[in-house]
C-alpha cells in the first residue's frame, strides 16, 4: 500500500458542519492521503464554521448545497464540472429528521416528517448520482454513512432507522446501476459518535454506554477509525468492492443477548 493512496485523486465531501462531523474526520484522512478535496455546506447557518475549519488546510473549494433542492444539486455539479472536470470520489455524510418525527412513538410519525427524513437522508444519495453521474469515470467511488438502526430496532432511532434502510437499499441498487461504468457505491455503518446529528437522537448517550459495554472491542467508535475505513473504500485498495455496507462499530452488530 502506498503511503498516499489518494495522490492525484479529487472529489467532494458533503456533510461537514463542524470539527466533530464524521465528514470532517473523513476529510482529514483524505487530505493526509494526498487527495484534493472540495467541501459542500448545507447553508449560511454553517458556512462561517466550515470556512474557518478549512483555513489551515489546502481546501480551496467550498460550495453551498442543500441536498433537498434539485436547483442546488444542479448548480453544484455545474460548478464542480467547471472547477474540477471529473470526480474520483463523493462522500455523502448527510442526514436529517425533524424533531417532531423523532421524539414521538414510532406509530405517531407524521407524514411530513417521514418524507423529510427519507428525502434528506436517503433520496439525496440517489440525487447526487442523478445530477453528478456525468462527472463520474471508471474508478469513481461513492460512499455514504449509515447506522445499524436500519437492520435492528435501536432505541430512539425510529424514523431514521427506516431512512437508513432505504439508504442501504439505494447503495445496492446504485452499485448495480453504475457498476457497468466502473463506478462503485458503498456505505460505512458507524458506531455512535458524539456529533450534532447524533445528539438529536433521543437516548443517544445511553447508546454510547451500551456500545462501550457490549461491543467486542469494549470501546466507542473513534472518528479517526471512520476516516481510515472511508479511505479504504474511496481508494483503489477496495477496487473489487461495491454495494457493500462495512461496519466500523467495534463489532457491536455481531453480538446477541
Ligand atoms: N454520529 C453517529 O453516531 C452516527 C452513527 C452512524 C451514522 N451516522 C451518519 O453519519 C452522517 C454524518 O452525521 P454526523 O454524525 O457527522 O453529524 P453532523 O451533524 O456533523 O453531520 C450531518 C450533516 O448533515 C448536513 N445536512 C443536514 N441536512 C442537510 C441538507 N438538507 N442539505 C445538506 N446537508 C444537510 C448537516 O449540515 C451536517 O453537516 C449521517 O448520515 C449520520 O446519520 C452518524
Residue stretches low in confidence (pLDDT < 50, at least 5 long) are none
Radius of gyration: 17 Å
Give the averaged pLDDT, no decimals.
97
Distance between the termini: 39 Å
Any idea how many domains? 1
Counting copies of identical and different chains, the oligomeric state is single chain
How much helical structure, as a percent, in the residues? 40-55%
List the helices and strands and how they pair.
Layout (H helix, E strand, L loop, with lengths): L9 E5 L7 H11 L3 E6 L2 H11 L6 E4 L5 H15 L4 E4 L6 H4 L8 H22 L8 E6 L11 H22 L4 E7 L5 H4 L4 H11 L8 H12 L10 E4 L9
Helix pairs in contact: 1-9, 3-5, 5-6
The protein binds nicotinamide-adenine-dinucleotide.
Give an account of the 3D structure.
- By secondary structure, the chain is α/β, with parallel strands linked by helices.
- The protein has a single domain (10-249), classed as Rossmann fold, CATH 3.40.50.
- Helix content is 44%, strand content 14%.
- The protein is built from 9 helices and 7 strands.
- The chain has helices spanning 22-32, 44-54, 70-84, 99-102, 111-132, 158-179, 196-199, 204-214, 223-234; strands spanning 10-14, 36-41, 61-64, 89-92, 141-146, 184-190, 245-248.
- The protein has a 7-stranded parallel β-sheet with strand order 3-2-1-4-5-6-7, sandwiched between helices.
- α3 packs parallel to α5 (111-132).
- It is globular and about 50 Å long.
- Nicotinamide-adenine-dinucleotide (NAD) binds at residues 15-17, 21-23, 42, 46, 65-68, 93-96, 120, 145-147, 190, 192-193, 195-198.
